[in-house]
Amino acid sequence: MLLAIDIGGTKIAAARVENSVIVERRQCPMAYEEAGFRLAIESLLQAWPAPDSVAVATTGYIDAGRVRSVNLDIIPFWDGFALGDMLRSLFDCPVALINDGQAAAWGEYLVRQQDRPQDGPANLLFITLSTGVGGGMVLDGQLRLGPHGVAGHVGHAGVRLAPADHQNCCGCGRKGCLEMVASGSALARQATAIYGRALNSAELFAMAAQGDAKAEAIIANAACAVAEAIAGFYMILDLSEVVIGGSVGLAEGMLDRIQRALAQLPVRNSPKLTAARLGGDAGLAGVVAWAKEQP
Ligand SMILES: [Zn+2]
């Protein structure tokens, strides 16, 4: 049995996988300190049979077997955490780790190749707008991880558009990152500053849907920032398709807003823009597909 785990900024999802098919899925909230994280994993997997191998898609990136964080603000203990060693001590079996955006990119690429084996996208960029902004890319049919595992961290591309609250100092240490404008936590932060009360991104989308102009402006600005970033990636990578996922990316109307913003930019042959087909479980489905190819 393969145990697949997807660790995000707010939740941990796990799946029991038999013959590449998910037979049972569970999830729990992410823990923000090490002891609580270990407890969360243990209780999440309670009463499941011992796995033969474990494959993990995680926030952060994997460098020399350790997880590293680009944005140090999201999970305090994550940067340098020996996640692989912890899981090997729990399960006593091989553990493979990959970034969640990279796993999802591979999963989204494979479903498109299965549908269109003759003309699937050779160059696909996956962007997840979620707690943070992450991603992964497949170039010339190859999933790119990079020598330090960082490839595809599109949330830290610089954008010209400032967030509504002008707080653009990113947790990575730079200013003007896409993640500061268009992530779920960035939308919540901007909404909270503009309205003077605690709001999350789902509430902001609901307000925009009811015609609140200020809410719409925050979301539209985020969509424009994503489009601007896509235009830049397109010119560098000659992308065939850009796939948008994550809770914010898949929120009502977000893809349309990005599409409209992209259409207004002077980009020739701008790439096809599509919604993630694997939905909220793209990381889990992607890591199952990726695990099949691991030695
Ligand atoms: Zn950044």
UniProtKB/TrEMBL annotation:
Top-level taxon in the UniProt lineage: Bacteria
InterPro entries reported in the protein's UniProt record: ATPase_NBD, ROK, ROK_cs
SUPFAM superfamilies linked to this entry: Actin-like ATPase domain (SSF53067)
Protein name: ROK family protein
Native source organism of the sequence: Roseateles oligotrophus
Organism phylogeny: Bacteria, Pseudomonadati, Pseudomonadota, Betaproteobacteria, Burkholderiales
